[in-house]
Amino acid sequence: MPEELRYDPKEIESRWQRVWAHERTWEVPDDLPADAETSYVLEMLPYPSGEPHIGHLKVYSVGDAVAHFHRRRGRRVLHPMGYDAFGLPAENHAIKTGQHPRASTDAAIASFQREFRSWGISIDWTRELGTHEPRYYRWTQWIFLQLLHRGLAYRKEAAVKWCPVDATVLANEQVVDGHCERCGAEVQTRQLEQWFFRITDYADRLVEDLGRIEWPEHVKTMQRNWIGRSTGAQVTFRCEELDVDYPVFTTRPDTLFGATFFVMAPEHPDVLRLAAGTEHEDAVRAYVNAAAGGSAEDRGDAEREKTGVPLGRTVTNPVNGEALPMFVADYVLMEYGTGAIMAVPAHDARDFAFAQAYGVEVRRVVGTDEDLPYVGDGPLVNSHPDFDGLHNRDALERIVAWLDGEGKGHASVNYRLRDWLISRQRYWGCPIPVVYCSGDCGMVAVPADQLPVELPDVRDYAPKGRSPLAGAEDWVATTCPSCGGAARRETDTMDTFVDSSWYFLRYCDANNDEAAWDPAVLARWMPVDQYIGGVEHAILHLLYARFFCKALSDLGLLGADEPFARLFTQGMITRDGAKMSKSKGNVVSPQAIVERFGADTARCYILFIGPPDQDADWSDEGAEGMHRFLGRLWRTCARAATELHDEALAVEALGADGLRVARKAHWAIDKVTGDMEGRFAFNTAIAAVMELLNECGPSRRGAAESGAVRFALATAASLLFPFAPHTAADAHERLTGLRVWEEPWPVADPALLASDTFELVVQVNGKVRDRVQVPAEADAETLRALARDQPNVRSHLDGREVLKEVVVPGRLVNLVVR
RNA sequence: GCGGGCGUGGUGGAACCGGUAGACACGCCGGCUUUAGGUGCCGGUGGCGCAAGCCAUGGGGGUUCGAAUCCCUCCGCCCGCACCA
Length: 818
Prior knowledge:
Elements: H1 9-23, E1 38-43, H2 54-72, E2 76-78, E3 82-83, H3 88-97, H4 101-118, E4 129-130, H5 134-149, E5 153-163, E6 168-170, E7 175-176, E8 179-180, E9 188-197, H6 203-208, H7 217-227, E10 230-239, E11 244-250, E12 261-264, H8 271-275, H9 281-293, H10 296-299, E13 308-316, E14 323-329, E15 340-343, H11 349-358, H12 392-406, E16 409-414, E17 420-421, E18 423-424, E19 434-437, E20 443-445, H13 473-476, E21 477-479, E22 486-489, E23 493-494, H14 496-499, H15 503-506, H16 519-525, E24 530-534, H17 540-554, E25 567-570, E26 573-575, E27 578-579, H18 590-597, H19 599-608, E28 616-618, H20 620-643, H21 656-677, H22 682-695, H23 706-720, H24 725-736, H25 750-753, E29 757-764, E30 767-775, H26 780-788, H27 791-797, E31 802-808, E32 812-817
Parallel strand pairs: 1-2, 1-24, 3-4, 12-14, 24-25, 26-28, 29-32
Antiparallel strand pairs: 5-6, 5-9, 7-8, 9-17, 10-11, 10-16, 12-15, 13-14, 18-23, 19-20, 19-22, 21-22, 26-27, 29-30, 31-32
This protein binds one RNA strand through helix 7, strand 11, strand 15, helix 11 and helix 20.
């Protein structure tokens, strides 16, 4: 093969990357014309650690294809890049090596930048940000202040989750089955004063607005489950002996007449007081202590035997005045509802299990033939003459109305969602911009014009149950912004999910030094039109970001109250069917692939491997095949550029071969466009380009006119550009002299899409017996006659009676015979 | 246990509305080019059968002229939720 026709991705890729960088091709200016059509395409913010992995390659291959497609369809596309740069891995590394987290983070960022650039993704690098840079976290702190002033950030003492390994508190969302989501250690409960964001204020809207966004249904379901909205009633039970009211939340006020006991969580503050002076006092104390020491994991296990201890007191059921025995039991959780429940064993599986174990009465109040416990619907029985016989769902409303009238209860909505605990006793995070005055001012917010509160250097990163920042004495000691007296800084830092809850806003106005953003600029881009990332963020990041947008929009700082209009969650790339990991030694490094085949091959193969929302197994052979295809495309174009003369494409003058090639090109335009528009079917889009190229092979194209072949090849390069930008740009330029990214996305000619003949399938009794080329305009009668006339069809009709003829114009004829 | 998704050649997958099952690729087989090879190009490739044909989309049943696609049922795998009152 002549040297000039060698496909050399290294040379091609670096050459075009230089052109795009030099011409700043992918930058979008801040002063776009008002009528510009825009699109915001965003991949989830990467955490920079070591080098990018194959998941990054996938997310940017998808995102860049989308970004390019929109650009070529005439939109101005915002496609920025940044780094989620605060976080524990860098800090833990610092504890081990003494290297400042900033140094290791910046090194990782540099390697990410280098690799991202080598992939040729079309990023507007002028908007690049790192969440650890003071110019960024200055505004993270500013947002914190806005929330603080609105009462959406607050400090309170509460039972919180503590990870003993990471030595910090965690948000509920970061505890999975009683274990730290990050490190896997079993979490403990501690009573601490911490900072929270009032996300529960938005619980309702966070559920409600899921209806307005185009997200995968399973992600919405996960969020709904997490928020856990339940409607029901709050009902007050009175303990006469102690003269205290205990409200409970129930979703089943219709079963109030079936309540036979009352249970409190071991953490309920009144438990010991209630038992005091009764014969159960010691047992209760022992039970409460045991519960406090038990593991959160066991506590959450529904299969576990129900345990509990009587309190020796009763409460009065407000609907019938009955005295119900009180218990303490750990199947009741302090953090949900009021920490106390009315127990209806006949119609609740948990209460039933407890009643069986402790010999409490079970009273059926929903009449059915089913065994107890019965949690379904039915007519009320054994309740009250006013309600007996009513369907329980109707009775529910009437009972709540009655309670309301009597002042004994009211309709109520309860959520599983807790407020977001955002303080962390760690170093490498955004400082919380608050000081504590040693005088009379108490807690004072650092004024916005004194931001950022910069993270000081410390000598010792090791966590000791308090933030390493507490050791930076010079930094901690400050003056009170209010009275000018002595004050001490808050030493906790913010959860890094705070940093990533607003970065997509900053990108819109990334270099604004006067404000976090200009709302007018934001209005142009927000919400993100297409967000792309892993499903592992279905709850954490995606819920927090939604909360931020709602809170900020309520503050008048932002128009969009949903951050991400469309979400796409990509599947994992596995190797030999298993998740890639260093310990398994099955890691495929993007750098190695790019080194060996070039970025275009890597990107295309990852998209070709299967539907991008599904997991897919990496195959080296598959990547080689993609490399062959790109080489063939490039070479065929390069050869055509010199060997096929550049004649105009006159469709009317084309012969059969030329027409076939031109048609195939228009078919491919239609196919690729449809695959990109409707769904992210990049795999079939690339397959269509492969088909088109196959049609242009020297033997297959036959006597096709050079204009038709050139058009088909240029089209192939053009259609492949979103997936293999360098190769496509190079091939396209050689062939046409034009820069493909400046060309509009091709539009299929309907006249060339429709063929003048089609292959009619003829079935007898549903089995294909023959095929025949027929004119596209043939009417049903013609098709019918033609079908019956095929030799192989005749032999199957021979001596039989035709009962029915099904004619599907443009497709098939089915003859039903006996 | 509850909810959701999936199951198609040796492999990844395609078939978007019920209308030619297996596009496109990997792998394999054969041929050509020949520079020694990788490479490149052309062709073949679901199974059984000499063939006509038959069988085939996890198993079974159903609806339909016609089912990978719709319905019922069973099996297997994956994901989420799971003492939330």
